[in-house]
Amino acid sequence: MIIYNTTWLKHLIIQDQMKKAHRANQLSAEELQAIQHKYPVGFYSSNLFLRIGLFLVTTTLTSFAFGLLSLLLSNSHIVESPGYFAFLGILSYVALEVAVRVYHHYKSGVDDALIWTSGSLLLTALYIFLDKSAFSFKGYVDELLISGLVFLLSTYFTLRFAHMAMALLSFCAFIAFIFFAWNSYGFYTLSTMPFLLIIMATMIYFFALQLVKKYWIYQDCLGMLQFISLLTGYAAGNYFVVRELGSSMNHVVLLPDQDIPYAWFFWLWTFCIPFVYIAMGLKRKDIVLIRTGLILIAAACFTLRNYHHIASIEWILVSSGALLLATSYGLIRYLKTPKYGFTVAELDSDHILDNLKVESLIVSGTFGDGTTAAEGSRMGGGSFGGGGASSDF
Amino acid sequence: MIPTDLYKTLKDNGTISAESFDKLTEKQQSSLFSLHWELKTLLYLGVVLLSGGLGILIYKNIDSIGHQAILAGIAAICGGCFYYCFRHKNPFSRELLKSPGVLFDYVVLLGCLSFLTFTGYLQYQYQIFGTHYGMATFIPMLVLFYVAYEFDHLGVLSMAIANLAVWMGVSVTPSSLLSNANFDNQTLIYTYLLLGLILLLVGFFSERFNFKKHFRFSYLHFGIHISFIALLFAYFNHYDSATAILWLLILFGLGYYLYVDAMRHKSFYFMLLVILYSYVATSILVFRLLDGMSNTDSIYMLCLYFIISAAVLILRIIRLNKQIKAS
Question: Signal sequence: where (chain A) (predicted)?
């Protein structure tokens, strides 16, 4: 099913592992070179920046080429038929296969662009075809149809190209399909929906966890699946999501003092799950679980803040900031000498400079704008960049 | 997933030495788990939340708590941070300085942010700089540049560059540069252009004189974006006059120089920026030429231009990537 040369994929993993070992001074440069020679990789790949660049340029190319073609054919009625979209989709899919098979593109930006182009064109073609033909769809069936089609197409692309974004899309489409299907055909949909989605996400998580041992080719996609299923499993039981989504599905407006059924369960879920994830992650040394848990703690705090006014925003900011600083400072001190197999030291210094640079850009992105925000406000940007003064220019 | 017997195979066929084999297997058994990036992210978030919260706190309570109390509080945080930094810092070096600890960088950041709050507050409340608004931004800028060089902190350097731009009367973040698009103000465009060129120059000098060579990236990043955007704006500003083409010529000249420089440094990022900005400029020019025809043929020509140029560009970028990787 997979289009890539699996030997090369294996060699790629070996090379990456050995480069890591080389950076950690466990391997000499000559040995690394010998290994690279022994396990060659023939793929053409771009680094992140060139990948984005090639993606943009390839998208420009395909859109103008298809635009020109449509312009030439605009007098005939071909352009409106689903067959025309299918034709364009197949055209770009063929280009994709050629780029990957003949020119060995692998995560180069060109293949990414062609995957998205052909996928969306084929989706349009299928949708128009099914919508125009005899079926008389009503209500939710339209959403069902789209999510089903997206799921089928993106699953195909995931399996064929081991593409992470497609794996993500495939998961989302699947969950959307389940959601809409249960919503229109299930029983007691409102009260069962959160539990159904939680069960689904949990099943997919453990499924992906099992598969990753066997199907190493798809390890990136399966990692993505783990992350998104953990996130979805949490969101399905989050108090905010259940309350707001439930009331909007049911077309009712809940007053602030009204509560949803089983509110205690959802509050428990909102606050316990992030810590369960982190605890599980620490126990199993699973980075996906730890990171997801950390993100979700923030989500839990936002949920609480949304319904209960505990303190004013600035006190929350100050105290949570101080708490974070104190906690991480404590942990850094505690783990100065590795304990229970954990350390704060950077084990792999891969792209250390790149990381620093990206971080510096983030800093300037967060604080740089503050300098101009001050205009007209009393003291607005004063905390950053002395912008309070510059407003009077 | 690495095959467990890979190391053994490699050792047996003589690709790696016995010594390396021992090191590799030892590492595989002892597998330590690093929480480095998680803790760093938490620290960063803590600094952002704390300084942001303090800013709002002061803003809201400016009338109720005493000014001296606020000032003393911020000064204490700021002083404490810099005291810690000077206690723990490594001696100054012209080269890349390794940070003394995970915490150090974030203490520097917190110190700088609270210092900015401090000066901003002083100026607002006591007008220590009077109406010399230039001074009010110039002094924080100097301090930021000093801190960035003294403690070797790229984040503070970016803040210092942003402050330089404020001092010159503009804001430097590319997003705000675009959203505040102002084609009519010529002085603003020339200021941008000057700023961009200064940053590029400083970037080149840091390498030439081997003074904090790794800061070159930040200078060039801001310099390239600002000067190219300023040149494009200058072109549109003079659109109807004959001198318009001059700005694009300057752009291509600058682009060529930066392109050669990026090739020499094997920098994918700068190469891509230069290529994309030059492509935009070329497309603007072609668009203008074809618009002169103003009939249906020109639309076909435009499509053809984009198809051909994009194809050429793709092949070119792929070739360049291979060249850089091979060298």
Answer: none
